[in-house]
Amino acid sequence: MTIRNDYPLKAHNTFGLSACCRQFIEYSSDDEAIEAARMLRDADQPFLIIGEGSNLLLTKDFPGIVVRSAIKGRTIKARADGTLLLECGSGEQWEETVRWTVSQGYSAFVNLSLIPGDVGASAIQNIGAYGVEVAQYIDHIRAVDIATGQMTVIDAAECHYAYRDSRFKHEWKNRFLICQVCYRLPQDETLRIGYGNISEELARRQITSPTAEQLRQVIIDIRRQKLPDPSVLGNAGSFFMNPIISREHFERLVSNYPDMPHYEVDTEMVKIPAAWLIDQCGWKGRSMGRAGVHQRQPLVLVNLGGATGDEVVALCQAIQDDVKRKFGIELHPEVNIV
């Protein structure tokens, strides 16, 4: 187990923001997770559970303990019912896990290529892209209950997964240290190519029946074109969730904005791309102080150099105000603001 006092967190958030915590704990096994839970109980201090920091906005030093998983390992097992189970350490990098599963001949996660973060965070955030959410594949989670120090198995159905949401973000926040996420792996998964501009890019490359690896490369290329590299320009990827509004609200808006892009959720609800709303409010490429909106992807807020968390929050609030004023839609951050 790694334990550090007065520890800088700049390397643990992709915004590249300067902040420190009183103590930093990194656990690398089930036993260390159990011990870390005991330390959290005994310390009687606030604590923050993080992954790779790709969904984190730090606004100040953290006056307590920051804890993260470094548990590694991936194993695919056959079950008695003929299904396959991928058991994956919570500290494994998500993108590397996608690459590995595709190399093993499984395409379940291919649409989730190049999403930053680790495996543990995938189960908390319910990451998603191009018509796929990871909750579709989560079977169960092994985690230590911090209050009792006991290892527990959490069935996916108990997590109440929804769009970029789960109980881990609400009543279960800071309750568990995740050790392993176990995913169902379909053996004959149909590739999803009809979402976003994937099909257009495949047609441009004259690929009519893509392999999983070809589809993965297209998705990686699309994401790299739209999203800045955090090692070059600090950011946390998509800063806002795509809002879901009532069909009645949508019908009122589309009469004034007939080109408004949208995705059908069900007969009553419609999802609107937050990037389009932000762009329509004139924020694309603009900045406030040392925080800005990316010039190619308005959904991404960036650290232009030396920004503070408060500057990013101020930019976030200005964008929210403008979108609310123009469209009557509330944008909600996807990132965890601390």
How would you describe the overall organization of this protein?
The chain is of the alpha+beta class and 338 residues long. The protein contains eight helices and 20 strands. The strands form six sheets. It has a five-stranded antiparallel β-sheet. Strands 1-2-5-3 form a four-stranded mixed β-sheet. It has a four-stranded antiparallel β-sheet with strand order 13-19-18-17, with helices on one face. The longest helix has 19 residues, at 309-327. 41% of the residues are buried.
Summed up:
With 338 residues, the protein is of the alpha+beta class.
Tally of helical runs: 8
Quote the beta fraction. Answer: 25-35%
Could you tell me the radius of gyration in angstroms?
20 Å
Find the structural class using helix and strand composition: alpha+beta
Task: Categorize the overall geometry.
Answer: globular
Order of neighbouring strands in the sheet with most strands = 6-7-12-10-11
Helical coverage, percent range = 25-40%
Which segments are poorly predicted (pLDDT under 50) over 5 or more consecutive residues? Answer: none
| SS elements, strand count | 20
For the largest beta-sheet, the strand count, sense and barrel status come to: 5 strands, antiparallel
Which whole number gives the mean pLDDT?
Answer: 95
Order of helices and strands: EEHEEEEEHHEEEEEHHEEHEEHEEEHE
